[in-house]
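Reply to dn_fold:

You asked what the input looked like. This is it:
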Amino acid sequence: MSFLLSPLNTVDLSQHAIVLLAIVMALLALRRWPLLFAVSIWPGTLAHELLHFVAGWIFGAKPVALSVIPRRNPEGGWVLGSVAFTHLRWWNSAPVGLAPLALIPGSVYLFMASMTPPLISLPSAGIKLAAAQCLIAGWPSPRDWSHAIMGLLVTGVILLIGYLLMMRMGLLSL
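and this is what came back:
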């Protein structure tokens, strides 16, 4: 926690950021070999899917299955993990679909923590690897985005209709 109280040295920050960027790029380069990529990114996949599961439980989407075993999908791509829900609705699809974004602040925290040990050290590299995992896994998948966007659109339309009705009834004024 002492790293949160110490002043930032921009030279150290940029050096550590370059190392983190290299780790992220190395992990993403492994996409050419799907199974190797799946194994190397597995801790992030576990965190990603657990966040969907927990958000689904909190928001009443009723998660019924969790898988973090990589598998081929019928279209030829790979599914690294999934969560199945029985009550995913328009009102809970946005928080459930966007839940992995909660890993991004964790990634920032881990990155800042990785600056405490020396730049070239095993602890620094390990913490940066965890930060890279959180950063990559924190981005929702295309399917996550489709669920979230539909929920956000429906919510936006309902709010707009409510606002217009309140304006028409004279309950709100500009």
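Strands lie at 63-67, 71-72, 78-79, 82-85.
Hope that clears it up.
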